[in-house]
Amino acid sequence: MTVFLIGFMGAGKTTLGKKLAPKLQCTFIDVDHLLEQQEGMSIKDIIAAHGEPYFRQRESETLRSIDLDDKIISTGGGMPCFHDNMTWMNAHGITLYLNVSEKAIYSRLKTVDREQRPLLRGLDDEQLRIFIKEKLTERRPFYEQAQLDLDPISEPLNDVAEKIKNYIR
Ligand code: S3P
């Protein structure tokens, strides 16, 4: 089984993926984390040193380099929107969109260290709110190509695991 978790920053992809993996007898992989290991630096530093287009190219290559067998794979928030990654993921596994409201994303991202998140650097609260609104509008058409969607805030973990199992049955 291969499951790709997609959704905006702060939607909880990593948290859900880590909990879901043992329930589905899978290994958890975070694409950003894998890329950081390969490059020997953080995503923030990769983007600062080489720019976003380089990062998008490398995240796409990293995705395609993973051995997909029995993996729950957490992807970066922008990944489905570049290099036909959404089409590729739909062809290679089950895609699951963590459909979290704009409000919930804002309240989560409000408290993270924005300086550590390349796309959020320097934004004040109001700019953050506008950024989320605009980016979500731009990205939703990609996220909505996912085969399954759920709200991880309201849906219990066991229900999510069942939803995936039923889908592949
Ligand atoms: C990004 C989200 C980040 C990371 C990079 C760009 C985005 O991942 O890939 O900073 O474009 O939304 P998370 O969604 O895991 O925070």
Q: How many structurally independent domains? A: 1
Helix content: 40-55%
Q: Which strand-content bin applies to the residues?
A: 5-15%
The helix/strand order is EHEHHHEHEHHEH
Kindly state the mean pLDDT as a whole number?
96
What structural class do you assign from the helix and strand content? alpha/beta
CATH class division: Alpha Beta
- Total DSSP E strands: 5
User: How many helix segments?
Assistant: 8
Present as ligands are:
shikimate-3-phosphate
Physical arrangement of strands within the biggest beta sheet: 2-3-1-4-5
Basic shape? globular
CATH architecture descriptor: 3-Layer(aba) Sandwich
According to CATH, the fold-level topology is Rossmann fold
- Tell me the distance between the termini: 11 Å
Write the layout of secondary structure elements.
Blueprint (H helix, E strand, L loop, with lengths): L1 E5 L6 H11 L3 E4 H9 L3 H8 L1 H14 L5 E4 L10 H8 L1 E5 L3 H8 L15 H19 L4 E3 L6 H12 L1
Parallel strand pairs: 1-3, 1-4, 2-3, 4-5
Helix pairs in contact: 1-8, 2-4, 3-4, 6-7
